[in-house]
Specification:
The complex is a heterodimer of chains A (about 525) and B (about 260). The longest helix of chain A has about 40 residues, at about 410-450. With about 525 residues, chain A is mainly alpha-helical. In chain A, a hairpin with a 5-residue loop joins strand 9 (about 450-460) and strand 10 (about 465-470). The mean pLDDT of chain A is about 90. Chain A is about 60% helix and about 5% strand. Among the domains of chain A are: about 30-245 and about 255-295, Cytochrome Bc1 Complex, Chain C (Up-down Bundle); about 450-535, no CATH class. In chain B, helix 5 crosses helix 10 (about 180-190). Residues about 35-40 of chain B have low confidence and may be disordered. Chain B is mainly α and about 260 residues long. A two-stranded antiparallel ribbon of chain B has the order 1-2. Chain B has 12 helices and 2 strands. Helices cover about 60% and strands about 0% of the residues of chain B. Classes of the chains: A mainly alpha (about 525), B mainly alpha (about 260).
Chain lengths: ~525, ~260
């Protein structure tokens, strides 16, 4: 500590600096509060971190790209060093993308880093959402943070798509044309919105510059704000933890942020950065120079969007194409409207699920201990059905590649996926629910009668029995610590009437909790153990 | 006055005379034209090649194409398909076809080059048709950039912008052009094999064809500049690669990090 008369400090440069900062901005207080924040340890808690770090990589590599990219659609004749395009007519945007790839030092690497990181950002955010969903981490008090995270996922998709369209090459132009078609499919306002967006008839002269503004200003700014809110709420709510001895809804068990997690998270950032760099340096992504500049007349076979838009493209492909209705002089393109509505509905249901479940359970308590997926069979089954539905739509975006690479008929692939889109989610729901219930029964069995030891003992009267080893208390804790919800009955309200709302809620509740396996109670455990003793 | 003029100009025989003259002109023109093409396509082959080709045809192809190459319910007539068709189909192994399916598959070549040439000679002798390309078209001295543009406008909707191939209806497909030789690209354009349309010299001029060949050969020989190209199949493969290897690898790493602390 320094003294009033300015004695020379002891403890060297680091301590001196720390003290200097503490006296001016109060670092010690901040570090005390944040450094002592406790985080539980589990690999699945690091998936969101992957998204955060890939976003940092996106910011860094994206800034580099803005130094050289020119978002203009002014036509030029290419005169760069790439031979197969020499003399070709193209836009300034495409030409500058080619120049970044071939003439800017490190430009191609940065483009590939940016693109791979973008794919990883949305994917890791999606995987993180799945973890949150299947462990019930969205329950009170974290419903709002689920919405914030959901907004981040959608913003990631928006950021990705606006970026995908910037190079103004044939592939992205075809993608933009599909978006234009979807917008024009919206009744009444579609044509006007398209005209507004593209500044006239597609492709117009301004779309690249407009998408660029969104891509480098509005969307990343929103993502940053939402990330800040997301992390701030994690601090407010504290982190969830998996059930175990001593882990309750009113505590967090884990290690402090400083020094354990600062070191761990810092190291993990470089691991993520390293993986992205390694892949970007060895695997090519979006080789735009192969595709040629955009020209509205050519449409390439095998045109696909990046993976996160794939489910919407798949929805378009899987919808029967003849669904057009003529209303007088107007065409209602149901073949475009249905996939849009289905895609948007899917996202809306995913966003609102926490509120739906909270309403069905009627549970107003705070939950900080995570569910094992098997202990919420209906939620897990709904999640599995959603994942399968999304996956079939996603596969739908690759129908042509599946057909050519696996030697199948395109028509048969389409038909199979159309059937799969209806059948597989239902099958996934039923199978997952049964599996979860069976696993719960297995857990019950283990708690009550112990684990099969594989040791066969012959009793004095000749009977053979397998010895079951009793499990230790810590393991038992994990197997019995879950909420035992029961179906809510529709009850008359204060005026003695059963409302429709009440009826719906009751039927939803019985759908969720009619089939259930209850956790082992202490009494059951005691009874089971006295049985075992008698047997021996 | 109008009536008078008409009467003065036309005798009843004039119409017949005009039609006759027209017929003679087009007829002799057609004869001249076909004579010149058949002469051109006949010239590269000797009579013994034609003979040998006929024998090979009878023992290998006649069961489907008919003894006189007149075609059957299973296979088309070969009159007028020219040497180019034979060279394309047999040199790529598509003919003789292994099974009847939506489309003939590429497979190992079944004949020696001299036998293929002989069969081409015999088919060419049946009726005039497209002949094998001369070396000038295959020299790849065209304008690759222009060829790319023409390729994207005319070919990319089936063969994909980088020639990676694409799906057609009912199990048919446009094959990848990543290993196709210059001669086969040319022959495919002028003969329109299987589901491919014919690109005659009035659709794509010889210069256009040369440019396309130059472009495709440039794409084939250019190394993948940004690293491994993952089959050049675009975003689907990129997405799968990212999910399986990048995110999959990172999940394994998180498990490793999580396990260390326990």
């Amino acid at each position: 500590m320094s003294t009033a008369n300015g004695n020379k400090q002891k403890g060297g440069f680091l301590a001196g600096t720390a003290n200097y900062l503490d006296e001016r901005v109060g670092v010690a207080g901040i570090l005390k509060t944040f450094g002592r924040k406790v985080f539980p340890d589990h690999w699945s808690f690091m998936l969101g971190e992957v998204a955060l770090y890939s976003f940092l990589v996106l910011l860094l590599s994206g800034t580099f790209l803005t130094f050289f990219f020119q978002p203009a659609m002014t036509p030029v004749i290419y005169d760069g060093i790439y031979g197969p395009l020499k003399g070709a007519h193209m836009s300034v945007a495409y030409a500058s993308t080619i120049d970044i790839s071939f003439e800017v030092r490190g430009g191609l690497l940065m483009r590939q880093v940016h693109h791979w990181a973008a794919l990883l950002f949305v994917a890791s955010a999606g995987l993180h959402m799945l973890r949150v969903f299947f462990t019930g981490a969205f329950r009170k008090p974290r419903e709002i943070n689920w919405i914030v995270g959901f907004a981040l996922f959608v913003l990631g998709m928006a950021g990705g798509f606006t970026g995908y369209s910037l190079p103004d090459d044939l592939l992205s132009g075809n993608g933009l044309r599909i978006i234009d078609g979807m917008i024009k499919g919206v009744p009444v306002i579609g044509t006007w919105i398209s005209s507004l967006l593209f500044g006239g008839e597609f492709p117009g002269h301004g779309i690249v510059a407009r998408l660029y503004s969104l891509h480098i200003m509005l969307i990343p700014a929103l993502i940053l704000v939402f990330i800040a809110i997301h992390l701030f709420m994690v601090v407010i709510h504290k982190h969830t933890h998996y059930s175990g001895a001593g882990k309750r809804d009113d505590n967090v068990v884990g290690y402090p942020l400083a020094p354990v997690y600062v070191a761990k998270a810092g190291g993990f950032f470089f691991i993520v950065f390293g993986v992205i760099m390694l892949v970007a340096a060895t695997f090519t992504i979006n080789p735009v120079w192969n595709y040629g500049g955009y020209d509205p007349s050519p449409v390439s076979a095998g045109t696909q969007p990046d993976w996160y838009i794939g489910f919407l493209d798949g929805a378009l492909r899987l919808t029967p194409s003849h669904l057009e209705v003529m209303l007088g002089n107007y065409t209602l393109s149901l073949n475009v409207l249905i996939p849009m509505v289905v895609g948007v509905l899917f996202l809306v249901v995913a966003a609102l699920y926490p509120f739906l479940e909270a309403w069905v359970t009627g549970d107003k308590r705070e939950h900080h201990v995570l569910d094992r997926p098997r202990n919420a069979p209906t939620r897990t089954a709904i999640g599995a059905a959603g994942v399968v539905f999304y996956a079939v739509l996603w596969a739908g975006a690759a129908t042509d590649l599946i057909a050519t690479n696996f030697r199948m008929s395109l028509n048969q692939v389409l038909l199979s996926l159309q059937i799969a889109l209806i059948i597989l989610p239902i099958a996934a729901y039923i199978i997952t629910k049964r599996l979860a219930l069976s696993l719960q029964r297995k857990d019950r069995e283990i708690v009550l009668h112990g684990r099969e030891s594989g040791r066969i003992v012959r009793l004095p009267h000749g009977e053979y029995v397998e010895v079951h080893e009793e499990i230790d208390e810590y393991t038992r804790y994990k197997l019995v610590d879950f909420v035992n919800y029961q179906p809510i009955l529709a009850r008359p309200n204060a005026r003695g009437k059963i409302t429709i709302r009440g009826r719906i809620r009751a039927s939803m509740s019985s759908w969720f909790f009619e089939d259930r396996v209850t956790p082992v109670t202490p009494a059951e455990l005691k009874a089971a153990h006295s049985d075992t003793k008698e047997l021996h | 006055m109008k009536q008078n003029l008409k009467n003065a100009r036309r005798s009843p025989w004039s119409a017949i005379a005009v039609i006759l003259a027209g017929l003679i002109l087009t007829g002799s023109g057609f004869v001249a034209a076909t004579a010149s093409t058949s002469a051109a396509s006949d010239s590269p082959y000797t009579a013994s090649q034609v003979d040998q080709g006929h024998k090979l045809f009878l023992s290998n192809c006649a069961s489907c194409h008919g003894k006189n190459a007149e075609g059957t319910a299973n296979a088309p007539s070969l009159y007028g398909v020219g040497a180019a068709s034979v060279l394309f189909q047999v040199e790529t192994g598509r003919m003789p076809g292994a099974i009847s399916g939506p489309q003939l598959e590429v497979k190992p070549v079944q004949f020696k080059q001299s036998d293929i040439d002989a069969m081409a000679a015999w088919v060419a002798s049946l009726a005039p048709g497209p002949s094998a390309p001369t070396a000038a078209y295959l020299a790849q001295k065209g304008d690759a950039s222009r060829g790319g543009q023409i390729f994207r406008i005319n070919c990319a909707m089936c063969h994909n912008a980088v020639g990676a191939g694409g799906a057609l209806t009912g199990g048919k497909y446009a094959p990848a052009l990543t290993h196709t030789s210059a001669a086969h690209i040319y022959e495919a354009m002028i003969t329109g094999p299987q589901n491919m349309p014919v690109f005659s010299n009035s659709d794509l001029t010889l210069t256009d064809k040369t440019d396309i060949i130059t472009y495709l050969q440039a794409v084939q020989t250019n190394p993948s500049i940004g690293g491994f190209d993952l089959g050049n199949l675009g975003p689907v493969v990129e997405g799968l690669f990212m999910w399986i290897f990048m995110l999959g690898g990172l999940v394994l790493l998180t498990m490793w990090l999580g396990a260390k602390s326990n």
